[in-house]
Amino acid sequence: MADDPANANPVETGRPDGPSALDGVSGFMGMRWDDPQTVRLEIRPELINGGGMLSGVVTYALVDYCMGSTLWAQTTERERIATIGIAINYIQTATEGEIVCRTTLDRRNRTTAVMRSEVHHEDGRLLVTAIGSYTILPARSRPATPSER
Fold this sequence. Notes:
alpha+beta, six-stranded antiparallel β-sheet, 37% strand
């Protein structure tokens, strides 16, 4: 099954259209990966807030997912990751078109990582800058499921 392209991790495949979703949140928002460091989404009416602007929650989630996939690509099977904190600066907004987040891993050691991201509109405007820190933890051993016992 691991060699079946349908079961491959879509972030690792580097498909030009990216995965349809990694989970319910990324699926709802319409996130698509170019590679682990680059995530895109098309602005849709349901992502616009009551003030008529792209919701900050959308760009924050885009940054968090992009940082997470950037770091995830640098981990081993014995590691897991979690967000410690993200400081985000909302510079401009958009109401239509595509936005793209790109993340750079600045530093990683055994227990922490620091990254920076920028979100640009398809017209080139800088919308968001962010810095984030993540913790790197040993993977938990999961209990066997009833079918594995």
